[in-house]
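In this section we walk through a basic example: taking a raw amino acid sequence and producing a predicted 3D structure, encoded as discrete structure tokens. The instruction is simple. Fold the sequence below.
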Amino acid sequence: MYETVAILAAVVFLYSMLADRLERTLIGGAISFTLVGIALGPQGSGLLHLSLNTEGLTSLAELTLALLLFVDAANADLKELVRSSALPRRMLLIGLPLTIGLGCLSGLLLIDSLPWISIALLATILAPTDAALGKAVVTDETVPNRIRTTLNFESGMNDGICVPIFLTFLAFALHTAGEKTFGETAAKLIIEEVGIGALVGLSVVGICALLARYFESHLTGAASWQQLQVPALALTCFALAQAIGGSGFIAAFVGGLLFNGLTPKPLKHQLIVAAEGFGDATALLTWVVFGATVVGSLISHISWQVLLYAVLSLTVVRMLPVWLSLRGTGVRTDEALFLGWFGPRGLASIVFVVMAMDAEVPGANLVGVTVACTILLSIVAHGISAKPLARLLAARLHTREAGGQ
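The resulting token sequence is shown next.
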């Protein structure tokens, strides 16, 4: 155990020294740490001995995602979100269902060895996008603000929206839905997961904001402990919502939005910096674990059908629904394609696929291989294309504005 901890800590330290330089190149943290996991894991040099079980990997990915969702929401430009709310709303309400449907159709055509319910699970597992992997674009100020805000809000909400859909398919795959129809089961789960999640996020942050104002006027807290407020809030929102039957991801994101609105800007920045660093570190450790325990063991089982499905999932299955959902909104084709392309798959997909494999759904191993292949391609493709495509979009926008003048 101590050898593993030493290796992981050393890797984090080395990356922290090189992060600024590496993130200006095409090599991001997710790519680096996944490759480190593969190289040091059992399928590589064998130096990294990880005995993390499926429950442990799920918990690590869930808590990391909850913290990152809260921080992203707390950093969001709320005024821009109000102005551009039609874009993420269309992508979530029209684009997301179309993505799942097109993913199902692609799976039925390509992976005939899986039953339809497992293909539906696969399409749902790969539908949500990863806020952490999209950070390079969301934080790049050369990208138009409405594009960054749209991607941020969409990635924050689609994880939670996909939870009840995933659980509905899982219930039917395991024959635990009883006599209820698919629509009844889905409606019940959506109301519970989204409704309870949003209520918990608003309640926890609202109550804590009142407590913070009281203590601020009566007591003074140590500055070192203030750095723990945001991680504690994020994890409280997530865990409480999960405990009472809601979506912890929705709770974390909605809680972060409320925190954003209630907290003065200078204090908000001060509180978020430490939480952001902690979230980034745990995310990168998750990629090490993913590379060592998942990719390393499954990569040899990738077939041409799996590879083709992964490519389609990252391109046509995602980009066509986004383009269709944004028709009539005034979004230009290049902007719509940019929004469609930057839908990286990551932590949410890891959480879902581990749950599916742990439940032993029909064809669980093939589902796991396909998801692992898609995430691996996403890490590389979105990592190396983020900055070049952001610069290209910014240049096209500048050219249009110059031409308009």
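Looking at the output, two observations stand out. DSSP finds 18 helices and no strands in the chain. The mean pLDDT is 83. In the next section we compare this with other chains.
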